[in-house]
Task: structure prediction
Amino acid sequence: MDEKKYQQLEQQITPKPKYVKNCVAAFLVGGLICLIGQFVALFYISFFDFTERTASNPTVATMIFISMLLTGFGYYKKIAQVGGAGSAVPITGFGNAMISTAIEHKSEGYVLGVGGNMFKLAGSVIVYGVFSAFVVALIKTILVGLGVVSW
Amino acid sequence: MTIRKILLLGFILVLLAGCSTSIGFKTVNTTDVDGQRAETLVKEDKRIKNAVILIHDDRLIAGLRVNTFERFKKRKIAKELSKELEKLYPEMKITVSADSKVLLETNKLIDEKNEKNYAKKMKKISSLVKEET
Result:
């Protein structure tokens, strides 16, 4: 069997991913997570001194906390199995990425294992987030300085 | 009843409950100035679906709720309205916001019907709007 034949065989056998079904599942699960987030935000708006604009910070913290708990108890992977990207893209995926690596590398010790690996995936997210925010802010500052737009 | 049916029922209930909230337009005025002008100004604006206006002492607070797809421009709408209200009532401290917190709190304040609290609570709402973080 040469290389071409093998590739043909491989393409025949590999099951086709169900794109449409996955998209719908991700849409529903991601939407459900956002719905819960909206309720948390509403809770902070109605019972504490937060406005719609300032309520986002405690809401994000609460959602990350909930997903961290779910990851620790082993429920988040079940959600991820159904939702796929829908459970990874919202901020809850960030909490999951941190805690799951922390659990995975616990056997290597607390400093080099948990501490060193906790931010393996989340760290790059933070770095990219901070850097892109810096670039966008720089562009806006220049545009405001030139008088094209206002704050 | 299977869990699927209960979930479906809950889903429909939540969906329908979202359609029922309506405060409409409400104005409460404890001063001698003409509050009607502010109300007509807000009512005539097609972009606004709910509004609560409270006028007390030297303060005017207007909480707005804009139409769903105007939400992207809600801060601009509030700013425009604030300018027009300042023209109508130049001697007053005016707070206009499309933030739902202002609408909720002002509505709560009016429903309590305790006029002694007005000055203190209105000051708090105005300071909340200025909060950035």
Summary: Chain A touches chain B through ten residues (CB under 8 Å). Residues 18-92 of chain A form one domain.
